[in-house]
Amino acid sequence: MLGGYCECFCWSNQDFYGDDFYLPDPQPFSLPVPLPKWPQGQGFATGRINLGEIEVVKITKFESVWSCGLLRGKSKGVTFYRPVGIPEGFHCLGYYCQSNDQPLRGYVLVGCDSNAHKPEVGHINDSEVDSPLRKPLNYSLIWSSDSQNNGGSGYFWLPNPPEGYKAMGIVVTYNPEEPKVEEVRCVRADLTEKCETSNQILSPDPKSSNPFDVWSTRPYRRGMLAKGVSVGTFYCNAYLSSDEVLIDIACLKNLHHSLPAMPNLDQVHALIKHYGPTVFFHPDEDCLPSSVQWFFKNGALLYRDCGQKGEPIDLRGSNLPSGGENDGEFWIDLPVDDDARNDVITGDLESAELYVHVKPAFGGTFTDIAMWIFCPFNGAATLKIGLMTIPMTKIGQHVGDWEHHTLRVSNFTGELWQVFFSEHSGGRWVDASDLEFIEGNRPVVYSSKHGHASFPHPGTYLQGSTKLGIGVRNDVARSKYYVDSSIKYQLVAAEYLGDGVVTEPCWLQYMREWGPDIVYDSRSEIDKILDHLPFFVRFSVENLVDLFPTELYGEEGPTGPKEKYNWVGDEIC
């Protein structure tokens, strides 16, 4: 019994789980095919990254120290790992933890003084106050399992740093003996940034007298201008919450302003050609994507908030208002002629391409490749109420639909690490081990019927109340309609490369709306829904409204990629 926390057995370096339950160790994950030899450049995919005063290496090999697994419930437990294979001269900063029901795919950074190999007169050693890395003074025991089953308990230690330094992570042992101070290093405070809890790895039992809560960590400030570097360690305490800023530990900071580990232009194109996803549209999709130029060429009109007629937009979008912000004064709409309007609504798959924005992530230790796709029209929604499916006639429709997915690539190796799928009202990161691949290391992205939200696997995804089975259907499947982004793409922005390296198209500077504001007659649509329902399961109109996403009742004209939060910031999950 883990301090009253759960029925569980714990062990150190054991491959059994109780007397008769075998729990295999998580196996490492590899991409479907080996990585290519990337074009030559500065520091990209060299295995090491210089952060200024500290150089770091990513460790992905571990030895298990202690595990906890539930004998009751659905959880398969977690394992805590010590990094191994640390290069000479580098030091551990903290341990790693992950769930046992997924492949062993994680990392921790180890660091060294980047000037250690350049001794100078009066060079300071590890004991001096201004050294980038120093040993902790000692450790504080912050939690233990109090179990004597199968190899001992688990003990969790927080390094106590010298004044002016920060701990980076937790150390785990399977006996009560305090770890040696040589086990980890603390980092000088001016070389660190705040970090926060990210994903919950292990949740506590609220009835426990000895609660245990484990979270992965990430930099508090994220985005292409942020300097925080994720160390890959975890944090544990009682009753933490998501996005909680941590006081006891920190993350690293990249003070190397040139970001030498970011890919150069040739390497960017190589990454896109190697990892560019194939985007599949639904077999019944009748609102397909097109290029922006095709949209302009086929009659899109620019309107101004003064009642004037729409103005044709030239092929480059050079007559669109540039810069500023979305003040509601301008918007784009479909052609006035009915035939031309219907043609544009259908889209043009042959001209469609992905518009690519490349930017630093986690202080330049990762590269985010955001891939935007444009659809001239967003089709009507399909509602699900229990077992019933009800297509709408107008609700959900709007002009100009921008959707995206983002590849996150490790700058240590050039390995695809995660993909972000932009879904309505947010999105989610999916690890490479959970992706579907096609033709080597290129993942598959599924675009939902009419709404064009992105998903990692085929099926039906409900936006609304999954508990009640009420909401908007997002149906995704493979079909003959697809875009291969490894070939059909246009690099539109990569600010870190410097001025003039990538020429941004004129239309990218258009910060206003790509479609007019729409207010739907939701009451009449909902009355139609109620007419379909048996009397004994009918909701009141007010209750039904509360169960559906708010965007069903009106649509502001969507803005373009550069006006979205994630253009500069991190993805919103």
Automatic annotation (TrEMBL):
Entry's Pfam families? Vps62
The domain of life is Eukaryota
Kindly provide the name given to this protein in its UniProt entry. Vacuolar protein sorting-associated protein 62
Organism from which the protein derives: Salix brachista
